[in-house]
């Protein structure tokens, strides 16, 4: 069992700021309007930026369904961040009818 909390989509406001660690093509297809995008492979070189983003708040992290987040949270926590997983990832966000945008203005999807 994970030692990190799973935050249900329904517990987040539509304008929540959270970290999306999906790949560029996934982000381009559809993402939450206020999410910050740093692909998983670029997290280690962006830790200071991530710390600034989180401030003293809990940092909610998302991917497509949660698998990448579960592998990433321990290293973010070691960096001193208070982290949690967006339960169900962007699939759950989309299914809940939360706002999404795509990078090219087309109908947003979860890729």
Automatic annotation (TrEMBL):
Gene3D superfamilies, A to Z: Rhodanese-like domain (3.40.250.10)
Coiled-coil stretches: none
InterPro entries: GlpE_sulfurtransferase, Rhodanese-like_dom, Rhodanese-like_dom_sf
Protein name: Rhodanese-related sulfurtransferase
Annotated signal sequence range: none
Record-annotated Rhodanese domain positions: 12-102
SMART domains cross-referenced by the UniProt entry: RHOD
Cited Pfam families: Rhodanese
Entry superkingdom: Bacteria
Keywords: Transferase
Gene Ontology MF term list: transferase activity
């Amino acid at each position: 069992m994970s030692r990190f909390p799973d935050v249900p989509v329904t517990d987040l406001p539509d304008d929540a700021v959270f970290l999306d660690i999906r790949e560029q093509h996934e982000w381009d297809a559809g993402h939450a309007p206020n999410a910050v995008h740093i692909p998983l492979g670029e997290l280690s070189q962006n830790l200071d930026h991530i710390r600034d983003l989180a401030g003293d708040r809990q940092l909610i992290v998302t991917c497509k369904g949660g698998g990448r987040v579960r592998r990433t949270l321990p290293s973010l926590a070691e960096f001193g961040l208070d982290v949690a997983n967006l339960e169900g990832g962007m699939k759950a966000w989309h299914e809940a009818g939360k706002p999404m945008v795509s990078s090219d203005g087309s109908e947003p999807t979860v890729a």
